[in-house]
Amino acid sequence: MADDKRTILVVDDDEDFLTQQELLLSRAGYEVVIAHGQAEAEELLQERRPDLAIVDLMMEHMDGGFALCYHIKKTDSSIPVILVTGVTRETGIEFDAATDEERAWIRADAMLTKPIRFEQLQREIRRLTETN
Questions:
Q1: How far apart, in Å, do the first and last CA atoms of the chain sit?
Q2: CB 3.0 to 4.6 Å from 65: which of 57, 71, 108, 131, for a disulfide?
């Protein structure tokens, strides 16, 4: 059964968020790989392929999450990506990946606003990995 464990890459520069997600996802039965930013995630992606990636929007650069989503999809378009962000709370600007046009430039399969409830995250993970 351990071979059936799905691997989730979590990328964020917020250590508290990483620790919390690693604990919750591990308890839910996932193998969790952590990256502390875009550059580290890109290096990890050269070595392994996660079943899903959870990516923060604002990391080393304000748009680092967008760039990483693009990189993931360019490397392997079958990897589902959930973009998580606190940008609305910080800037007042609202956007999401609800339409095909928005997903085309955001390059994420889902977008969640921080703080996220784990049940909400789990629901998106299941939805995005059911077909993979």
A1: 18
A2: 57
What's the length of the chain? 132
| Domain locations in the chain as residue ranges | 2-127
What is the structure's pLDDT at 111? 87
**CATH homologous superfamily, domain 2-127:** Response regulator (3.40.50.2300)
Residue 29 identity: G
> What is the mean pLDDT of the segment spanning 62-77?
89
- What's the confidence (pLDDT) of residue 58? 82
The tokens describing 3, both together, are 């071979």
Token pair for 13: 């520069």
Is the pLDDT confidence value at 108 over 50?
Answer: yes
